[in-house]
Amino acid sequence: MQEAPPVHPMADGIANRTSGTVGGTALSLRGLQKRFGETQAMRGVDLDIPSGQFVAVVGRSGSGKSTMLRLIAGLEVPDAGTIAFDGVRGERGGDLRMMFQEPRLLPWARVLANVEVGIRDADKLRAGALAGEVLREVGLESKQNEWPAALSGGQRQRVALARALVSRPRLLLLDEPLGALDALTRLSMQVLLTQAWSRLGFTAILVTHDVTEAVALADRVLIIEDGRIVQDVAVREARPRTRGSPTLATIENSILEELLTEEI
Amino acid sequence: MTAVSTVRKARGSRLRVGDNLVPWLLPLLILGGWQIAAMVGLFPARMLPAPTSIVAAGYRLLGTGELQQNIWVSFWRAAVGFLIGGGIGFALGLANGLSNLSARMTDTTLQMIRNIPHLALIPLVILWFGIDEAAKLFLVAFGVFFPIYLNTFHGVRGVDPQLVEMGRIYGMNPARLFWRVIFPGALPSIFVGLRFALGIMWLTLIVAETIAASSGLGYMAMQAREFMRTDVVMLSILIYALLGKLADLCAGLLERLTLSWHPAFQGG
């Protein structure tokens, strides 16, 4: 941290959010509860996320952060409470996309076909062109005819990102998508993610256990503990952000402190 | 390493031809030894005729049209029985793999029936169908059903649930989820069932034709036994072996065509 931190071209900045912007879904969670057998995974979560915000959710394993994401995605049904998308309860539509810790590519489909999985029915006629275009954006145009098995872990996750972005989603849910990648691949994925977010303006919710990553990417970091949101930290640093800048470091430390005190 | 690879490069094409011949060396050797042993008179021709006399018998039966007729009859029985039994097994395997309700209704019953050796049904089948075509088709279909059913069932159940979840969240409807995710995921297992079924298909047919038939390769062999024509008996056994190998080759080809994405089939 002593040496001059390399400038990280995180994003093109808010100013560049112009053409092609589809905007983001505004989310509103009220009294969300979920129980798995004996464990109460969500204990009444209230949360408002404005359109286009990048939210990071941190917390220890089993704190309920993934459960919250899966409830928003509709992969789990809440025991109590409501989720509204742009003010409408429970209507997810086709504007939601999700990335997982594993790429979850279809092994029997080539890269291009895997990206086409993300295309909406309305765009089926232009599927090939759209998929090719978004593959170019993630730098994998030359791999479009490969099988997923022939790609590296980082490349597979980039294909998964392309698949998520090809439909120009308004809400992107990220369930530790960078968790299994090596440090360098992780950094370049962070750049890709921020660029896409800046350009398309979707709402992003990133679940992660890497506080540095959360602070570097998000407008707002939520700390979840024992099924509740215990802290809501705003990150007001402008983009592009400099890795290890004093402001970010201060926020990161306070979050880490909070997480560590909970452990005791 | 380099020396070896240079040599390999130099004799590249000749080596490849040689490589293809390797699997056939042993059968050829056995055939040659057999021919010599027969010519020397190591064993009586009535017990084990020389390969040349088997070929001669084949030639003679081709001339009368008997051989083609019997091969065709056997092939037809195998194919139709396979399609009926395999089709039902495949459909039930899919249904039980996809629906818990269907599995709970039928799987226990099917597992009970599975434990009956299907060839033990021959006496019953003769009582029911006589030695008609229906008897052979029933036995083949019955034998083929279980490997196809079990492997389809387990193939569908074994599809990565994470991929299914991905398909759901990416808005696939049930039909697309089936064709894009579940069926391709189950295919490797279905092929295992197919190969087992092909083996059982020939086995069942041979037994059924030797016991209860008035045509077909098995019947031809039994007739030949009556007249002590060991050469014809050997001929039908060899034809069964060839047909079995042929069926396996077809399955292998199909596998390579549809599973080219699978790491096991890449670079080969």
TrEMBL record, chain B:
Taxonomic source organism: Sphingobium chungbukense
UniProt subcellular location: Cell membrane
Residue spans crossing the bilayer: 21-43, 75-95, 115-131, 137-156, 177-194, 200-220, 232-254
CDD domains cross-referenced by the UniProt entry: TM_PBP2
Protein name: ABC transporter permease
Keywords of the record: Cell membrane, Membrane, Transmembrane, Transmembrane helix, Transport
SUPFAM superfamilies (alphabetical): MetI-like (SSF161098)
Annotated ABC transmembrane type-1 domain residues: 71-251
Keyword RNA-binding recorded: no
Record membrane topology: Multi-pass membrane protein
Task of the protein: Probably part of an ABC transporter complex. Probably responsible for the translocation of the substrate across the membrane.
Biological process (GO), any one: alkanesulfonate transmembrane transport
Primary residence: membrane
Family, per entry: Belongs to the binding-protein-dependent transport system permease family.
